[in-house]
């Protein structure tokens, strides 16, 4: 009898992380229409390692090359998202990414907003790294603003939607419409203001990607494949009207209590690194912290 009672008690206890975050209550991705890859992107490098099937894209890395793509237009602000499915198994040293940058027009002094999936060994989960670089902080003496997460699901089993909202007051990173990080504009010196293009890529970053370079890409497991679909880009292009406004990240432009609760849940349960809380960092270079 005691055993039956204990079993029933276990079944009725609330689970901590298994069910995922609370509902954000607002689903920005549903407000933005999908676009085909060729409507808004073009190959940037590694054309032989890229395949487009209808509106979906596959890129891969082998010992010869990786691959990358770039939006046709630069943007001053906007919402940039895609459904992404990652490769399972040993992917150490490999980065699959979706990001904004102006490195090609401002080499050595560029801005960047990153979603990067850091490859891993077979027994450990992927790390999703978010990052922001401003006016060359990603060049030379690098001053990164990394916040890293594990995910509450297996990103290799299916597509999940990852997105960046960049507007004049903030940057918000979303996973399946759940905000996981908000980077506010506290001053112009710590916020990217110049136009950027949207990019995606898969490449070998063995020197740092997995546990600070401890584990390298192993081409015994090639090709390493990244799959993208359901592209969503809506924003203000450089040549667009002055009245243009990017999509709002919430009904009134400010994260709601539900969105903040969902973000707090993710950061409490799945955040694994925050540059603002790293005692090894020089915080005189990070005034926003």
Describe the overall structure.
The protein has 289 residues and is mainly beta. It is 10% helix and 36% strand. It has three helices and 15 strands. The strands form two sheets. The chain has an eight-stranded antiparallel beta sheet with strand order 1-4-13-6-7-8-9-15. It has a seven-stranded antiparallel beta sheet with strand order 2-3-14-5-10-11-12. Strand 2 and strand 3 form a beta hairpin. The model is unreliable at 1-17 (pLDDT under 50).
User: How far apart are the first and last residues' alpha carbons, in Å?
Assistant: 55 Å
Number of helices: 3
Q: What composes the largest sheet? A: 8 strands, antiparallel
In sequence order, what are the helices and strands, one letter per element? HHEEEEEEEEEEEEEEHE
Unreliable stretches (pLDDT < 50, length at least 5) are 1-17
Adjacency order of strands in the biggest sheet: 1-4-13-6-7-8-9-15
How would you sum up the global shape?
Answer: globular
- Strand content is 35-45%
Over all CA atoms, what is the radius of gyration? 20 Å
Mean pLDDT: 92
Number of strands: 15
Q: Kindly state the percentage of residues in helix.
A: 10-25%
Counting helices, strands and paired strands, the structural category is mainly beta
């Amino acid at each position: 009898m005691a055993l039956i009672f204990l079993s029933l008690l276990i079944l009725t206890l609330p689970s901590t992380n298994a069910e995922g975050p609370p509902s954000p209550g607002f689903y920005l991705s549903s407000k933005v229409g999908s676009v085909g890859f060729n409507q808004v992107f073009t190959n940037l490098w590694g054309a032989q390692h890229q395949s487009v099937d209808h509106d979906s894209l596959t890129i891969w890395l082998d010992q010869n090359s990786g691959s990358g793509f770039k939006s046709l237009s630069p943007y001053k602000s906007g919402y940039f998202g895609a459904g992404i499915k990652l490769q399972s198994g040993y992917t150490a040293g490999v980065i699959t990414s979706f990001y904004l940058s102006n490195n090609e027009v401002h080499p050595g002094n560029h801005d960047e907003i990153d979603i990067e999936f850091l490859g891993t060994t077979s027994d450990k989960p992927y790390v999703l790294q978010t990052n922001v670089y401003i006016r060359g902080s990603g060049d030379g003496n690098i001053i990164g603003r990394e916040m890293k997460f594990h995910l509450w699901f297996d990103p290799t089993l299916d597509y999940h939607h990852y997105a960046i909202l960049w507007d004049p007051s903030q940057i918000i990173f979303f996973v399946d419409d759940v905000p996981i990080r908000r980077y506010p504009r506290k001053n112009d010196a710590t916020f990217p203001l110049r136009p950027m293009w949207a990019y995606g890529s898969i490449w070998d970053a063995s020197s740092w990607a997995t546990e600070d370079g401890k584990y390298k890409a192993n081409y015994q497991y090639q090709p390493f494949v990244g799959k993208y679909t359901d592209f969503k880009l809506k924003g203000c292009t450089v040549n667009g009207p002055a009245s243009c406004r990017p999509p709002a990240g919430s009904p009134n432009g400010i994260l709601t209590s539900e969105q903040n609760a969902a973000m707090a849940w993710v950061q409490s349960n799945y955040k694994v690194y925050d540059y603002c809380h790293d005692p090894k960092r020089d915080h005189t270079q990070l005034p926003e912290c």
